[in-house]
Amino acid sequence: MRGSSAKPIGGLVRRAHIPVLVALVMVLAAGYYSEQQNDIIHNQALRADVRREVNELQVSLEGALNADLQLVRGLVAVLSTEPDMSQERFTQLGEMVLGRQSGISHVAAAPDLVVSMIYPLHGNEAALGLDYNQNAAQREAAYKVRDKGAVVLAGPVQLVQGDEAFIGRFPVFVGTGENRRFWGILSSVMKAEPLYESHGFNSPDLGIEVGIRGQDGMGAEGVQFFGDPSVFTDNPVLLDIPLPVGSWQIAARPKGGWSASRANPWPWRLLVFIAGGFIVVPIYMISRLSAARRDAIRTLKRRERQLETLSRRLEIAVDISKIGIWELNTKNSTTVWDPNLREIYGFKLNDPLSIDTWESCLHPDDHKKTVLEFRNACHVGGSYRSEYRIILPSREVRHIRSMGTAYADSDGWLRMVGVNLDVTQDVQLREKLIEANTALLQRNNDLNDAKIAAESADRAKSEFLANMSHEIRTPMNGILGMAELMSEFDLGPEERQYLSTIQDSSNALLKIINDILDLSRLEAGRLAISPIDFDLQNCVAGAVNLLRPKAREKGLWVSVSFADNLPERVHGDDGRLRQILVNLIGNAVKFTSEGGVDISVSCRADDPYNLVIAVDDTGIGISDHQAEYIFDRFKQADAATTRAFGGTGLGLTISSILAKRMGGGIDLCRLKEKGSCFRLKVQLAEAVNSSGASRVETMMDTAALAGCRVLLAEDNRTNRLLVRKYLADLGITLSEAHNGRQAVTLCQEEMAPDIILMDMSMPELDGLAATREIRALEIEQPVIVALTANAFESDREACLAAGMDYFLQKPISKSVLLRTLTMLRIGQDENNGQSG
Q: Can you tell me the distance from the alpha carbon of 571 to that of 534, in angstroms, rounded to the nearest whole number?
């Protein structure tokens, strides 16, 4: 019973306890009904007492108000007949009419709404001369009285004298018939506090709490002006106090609120409790015994179902997992093998098995170790775990993982229970994974070796291109430079033709070198796109103007048209755009013998910075077969074309890659019957600066170079001769050094030069090392300009990092060299504060 009593209360809702609950509910319902009836009777009596008491207050207050108002009506009647009454006459009538028993403290007459007469006058002089017309609220109240033609009781309001009072306003009319007119108003003042005191509202003997609302006669809709506001929200007794116009509402409740219902006498409650106990307790005892019996039956059935379910689950799990279960009795060495274990070892269900049978199946290499582990577990007890191989009757080898544990039976003998798992597939998979991992490691090593070889080949290629660029550009610098110097002399037509041939051939060779280097940089990802703000039409016109002389020489026209909606300035790489256009227009001029070339520049309607530039010519055209590989590197239309027009076949390849890097591409128009048409698309952006001057090459005055000290550090004799000729007759003091070490020595021993032209590749000390040493000297630092045949961006960055100020790439033309030196010299003068 103690265990049962400790169960949760919620257990009472079981079916066995329904009779107890029913009996208990009936007893509680009877007690509750008696309590409710007592509350109803008590509340009805209490409300009747409150109504009776508040009714007395209501009658007393209503009678007093009506009596006082009736007295004032007599005074109003006299005023109607004596409109010109004096203050003395008004005082005399006030004493006669109001006397000393009235609740009215004073009255005031206001002809034309201006207070002119007051009774009693003493103490109320401050109210004389009060003009209701000057106060909107008082004026409105007076007009309301006039319009209604009857008395209006307002308030409580704050008087001029400082008290709170109710004001009865009476309209006064004089004359009769058509001569009847509004004279003014007569106001009677009943002070609020004496009114409440005289009728017992504040009496300490009052057994109720009272509240009054309906200010200005608004009834239940008006503002409360007496009592605790909570009275009206506490289910009060409500009565109305009628006024001449409108009403007040009075509410009442017992002091302290409605009291709790009066309880039945305790003897009666005790009797009900004892009677309920005699009914409920026996029923409860019987139901508990019955419930305990049913609980035991239900528990047994539930456990039986759980055991059956668990057994079925275990059977299914063992069958699915193919786990073999065994048991060994160490007392008599008998063993039990389940069907799965027999299947693993290759035995039938009716084959006799023993511990010796198991030992005979063990692999010879694992026999000794496995038997020793098993016998130790049987003697010591505890858990057992082992992995070994077995040989089936079919001579198949399987890998087994065995686990078991020991326990003592009821007789104290040790028994072993365990499982066997066939892990043959797992072992084979692990071996395959090891083999695959070994092969993968070997493959990774091969790939790493291949990567190292590829990087080495790439470095060798870059070094080869850099060396070839240097070795070819250095003599090209001498050829083009000397040809440029020779062109300044007065030559005959035949000599001029020879010179022109030398220059054209040299420029063609230089273009081939530049194309190969550009392609190498593009493949290595070193060719950067450098966007700036530029004038679009100037860029296109500049590319076209470079090729107009060649077109004019062949008798071809070259026309350029710009769409109306093109932006004036754009943001992009103008140098790369010009390079693409020169290649496309140059090809059009090269492969056209008659007719001309049309260039049109437009943009997409929804994006003015998505440019479409079409280059249309009337040349030899491109067949569908040739169009398939027109953009491949080192490819031209055919061998005859190469022989007839020359070229490497890299121009379109480089231009196509550059166009893609600029967010577009180059397409070949297939529908053109004569000639060819290439369509270039590039994505530019809005100019960062809305306005600005375009880049215009201007010639500077070389007179600024007069007196300039220039040091030329160059190991190549031809290049020294060329620079010497370029700078002749300009008033320049030129010093020469054959290597970097001589350049450093000259800067130390002689006056430091203004400008140094520094070759990068020199014996003993190269240009980069020489620059670093010069920058470390405590001398007035010169401007150092790199002269290099290396054309990679990394070379430019290395020069600037070493401390050089400018970078010139060989071959160098005379105009470029002079323009660069002039610009740097003028910059020096401005920094030194000199005029230039």
A: 6
Whether the Cβ atoms of residue 553 and residue 684 lie closer than 8 Å to each other: no
Residues 6+ apart with CB under 8 A from 760: 766, 767, 768, 786, 787, 788, 790, 795, 799
**Sign of the alpha-carbon torsion through 493, 496, 501, 507:** negative
Instruction: Please name which of 415, 211, 237 lies closest in space to residue 331, comparing C-alpha atoms.
Output: 415
461 pLDDT band (50/70/90 cuts)? low
Interatomic CA distance for residues 152 and 160, integer angstroms? 20
Q: How far apart are the C-alpha atoms of 601 and 537, rounded to whole Å?
A: 9
Question: pTM (2 decimals)?
Answer: 0.38
Q: What is the rounded distance in angstroms from the CA atom of residue 273 to the CA atom of residue 812?
A: 124
Tell me which residue of 705, 728, 723 sits closest to 827, measured CA to CA.
705
* DSSP string covering 688-710: SSS--PPP------GGGGTT-EE
645: left (phi over 0), alpha (psi -120 to 50) or beta: alpha
| Residue 122 DSSP symbol | T
- Is 567:526 a contact under the CB 8 Å cutoff? no
Residues near 613 by beta carbon (within 8 Å), at least 6 away in sequence: 540, 581, 599, 600, 601, 602, 679, 680, 681, 682
Q: How far is it, in rounded angstroms, from Cα 618 to Cα 631?
A: 20
Residue 83 · residue 97 · CB < 8 Å: no
Distances (CA, A) of 67 to 61, 91, 170, 212, 272: 10, 20, 15, 20, 59
Q: Give the pLDDT confidence score for residue 154 in this predicted structure.
A: 79
**Other Cβ atoms closer than 10 A to 452:** 10
Q: What proportion of the chain, given as a percentage, has pLDDT over 90?
A: 7
Checking 131-138 for CB contacts under 8 A at 24+ apart, the result is 132/185
Q: Give the Cα separation of 436 and 441 in Å (integer).
A: 9
The model's pLDDT over 47-103, given as tens digits with 9 standing for 90+, comes to 888 888 888 888 888 887 888 788 788 888 888 888 888 888 888 888 877 765 667
Q: How far apart are the first and last CA of the chain?
A: 120
17, 289 Cβ separation under 8 angstroms: no
β-pairing, 806-809 vs 783-788, is parallel
Residue 170 forms beta bridges with which residues? Answer: 186
How many CB atoms within 10 Å of residue 502?
16
- Nearest Cα neighbor of 650 from 476, 518, 510 is 518
* Cα distance between residue 131 and residue 331, in whole Å: 128
* Whether the Cβ atoms of residue 757 and residue 486 lie closer than 8 Å to each other: no
Exposure letters 718-753 (e unless 16+ CB within 10 A, then b): ebbebbeebbeebebebbbbbbbbbbbebbeeeebb
Residue 762 to residues 107, 731, 818: CA-CA distances in angstroms? 127, 27, 23
pLDDT tens across 766-805, in order? 999 999 999 999 888 899 999 877 656 677 788 888 889 8
Distance, in Å, from the CA atom of 745 to the CA atom of 762, rounded to the nearest integer, reads 15
Instruction: Please return the burial class of 342, using the count of CB atoms within 10 Å of its CB with bins 0-12, 13-18 and 19+.
Output: middle
Q: Are 397 and 315 in contact (CB under 8 A)?
A: no
Average pLDDT value for the chain: 79
Distance CA 522, CA 759 (A): 26
Q: Where are the beta strands (DSSP E) in 343-396?
A: 383-391
Dist. CA 559–CA 547, nearest whole Å: 12
Per the listing, tokens 């007569």 go with 186
Which residue has tokens 């022989």? 643
Q: Closest by alpha carbon to 247, among 229, 226, 221, 209? A: 221
Helices and strands (H and E) in the chain: how many:
21, 27
């007839």: which residue's tokens? Answer: 644
252: part of which helix (H) or strand (E)?
strand 247-254
